[in-house]
């Protein structure tokens, strides 16, 4: 009768490491030999990078097997026969399953240079943080690497957060630091700002161009950015410049909206994962709703332009969706969907999104103003909305495997920067 793994002191641990060009039959050849020598399997880890295999197998064997030549000779012969290399060494009798990692660090860049990644590793080590595993999460449209790390008990998490923020700025990469826990995989609702986040450009500027009011709108926008006007006041002033425009321009502008690169991929993937998806915008419902319908959004919150006798009056009707209003809309959506706030995600780019991102379980700043980056949990600076998926732990391989099943897999060539 075989004793349970770890129950007998008479068994010794061996680590078998196989390396070389990957091919079918390597694993089966190894395990056929191991089965003949009646070893117990403790752990297996395998990775293949560009066709090169590294396979680690930890086993427990009787002392006479571990110390003898029979197992070693048979394993070496089997692996060499398939053209790979193998090493066998005694392993310390430490627990097989290590303590789970405490955090993930996602590094995104186009490219990620060896120097940049080296700085990340150096800063992590300087704080006594151990890198447990590293895996690639994306090769398109950016390169993405995910590190699972263990922050020692009592260590200053804030120091690690600040260090990663410094590295991101200095090395020109995006770095997101998150807890590695079930909560990371439990996100169920996501909302997007619209202007310069879900779509390219600003709807108010497109409407102002129809009214010949670009300069007036730009002046109000600049005053708001200087802090001289709050959002509600700046909204009313900008909308006032649209008075007299025929309502038909709203349809014209809606037809000219261009989605941010990767938006369709992002939403398609999120729906596959069962997310509730919504829009929270300081823009205008009449322009946004057709897009929301096309994208199969579950929720829409936006301002509504007043129309009388087929023309814009230069006023909005109803409650203004401003900075506090966006956060309220997120909470309302979460309540309607029955989703706790810690399981929500908000993505935006402006100071008007600060409260919404702060309220969400995960706040993502997308090509954002500095004020928003300071409060966001993660900040993305590349113009591809599907980078949000990598922050959520979804890999490019998983995205494309699902797209391939539906016949939607394609890659658009991206010009060199």
From TrEMBL:
Q: Which domain of life is it from?
A: Bacteria
Q: Which cofactor does it need?
A: Mg(2+)
Return the CDD domains for the record. Answer: ACT_PSP_1
The record places domain ACT at 15-93
Q: Which reaction does it catalyse?
A: O-phospho-L-serine + H2O = L-serine + phosphate; O-phospho-D-serine + H2O = D-serine + phosphate
**The EC number(s) this enzyme carries:** 3.1.3.3
Q: Which UniProt keywords apply?
A: Amino-acid biosynthesis, Hydrolase, Magnesium, Metal-binding, Serine biosynthesis
Protein known as: phosphoserine phosphatase
Taxon lineage? Bacteria, Bacillati, Actinomycetota, Actinomycetes, Mycobacteriales
């Amino acid at each position: 009768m075989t004793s349970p793994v770890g129950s007998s002191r008479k068994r010794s641990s061996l680590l078998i490491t196989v390396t070389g060009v990957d091919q079918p039959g390597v694993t089966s050849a190894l395990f056929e030999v191991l089965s003949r020598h009646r070893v117990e399997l403790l752990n297996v880890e395998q990775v293949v990078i560009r066709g090169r295999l590294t396979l680690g197998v930890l086993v427990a064997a009787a002392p006479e097997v571990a110390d003898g030549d029979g197992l070693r000779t048979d394993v070496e012969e089997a692996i060499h026969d398939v053209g790979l290399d193998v090493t066998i060494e005694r392993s310390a009798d430490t627990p097989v399953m290590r303590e789970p990692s405490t955090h993930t660090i996602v590094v995104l860049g186009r490219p990620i240079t060896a120097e940049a990644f080296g700085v990340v590793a150096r800063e992590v080590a300087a704080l006594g943080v151990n890198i447990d595993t590293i895996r690639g999460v994306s090769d398109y449209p950016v390169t993405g690497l995910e590190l699972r790390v263990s922050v020692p008990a009592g260590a200053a998490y804030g120091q690690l957060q600040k260090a990663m923020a410094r590295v991101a700025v200095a090395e020109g990469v995006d770095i997101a630091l998150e807890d590695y826990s079930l909560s990371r995989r439990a996100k169920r609702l996501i909302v997007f700002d619209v202007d310069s986040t879900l779509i390219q450009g600003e709807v108010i500027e497109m409407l102002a161009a129809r009214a010949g009011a670009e300069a007036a709108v730009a002046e109000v926008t600049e005053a708001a950015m200087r802090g001289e006007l709050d959002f509600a006041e700046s909204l009313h002033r900008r909308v006032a410049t649209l008075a007299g425009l025929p309502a038909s321009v709203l349809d014209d502008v809606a037809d000219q909206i261009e989605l941010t690169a990767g938006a369709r991929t992002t939403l398609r993937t999120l729906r596959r994962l069962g997310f509730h998806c919504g829009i929270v915008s300081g823009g205008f419902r009449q322009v946004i709703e057709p897009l929301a319908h096309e994208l199969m959004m579950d929720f829409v919150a936006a301002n509504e332009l007043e129309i009388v006798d087929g023309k814009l009056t230069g006023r909005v009707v109803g409650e203004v969706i401003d900075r506090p209003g966006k956060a309220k809309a997120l909470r309302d959506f979460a309540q309607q969907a029955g989703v706790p706030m810690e399981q929500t995600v908000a993505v935006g780019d402006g100071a008007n999104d600060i409260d919404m991102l702060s309220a969400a379980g995960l706040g993502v700043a997308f090509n954002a103003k500095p004020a928003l980056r300071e409060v966001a949990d993660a900040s993305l600076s590349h113009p591809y909305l599907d980078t949000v998926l990598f922050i959520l732990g979804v890999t490019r391989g998983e995205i494309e495997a699902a797209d391939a099943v539906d016949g939607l897999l394609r890659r658009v060539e991206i010009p060199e920067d």
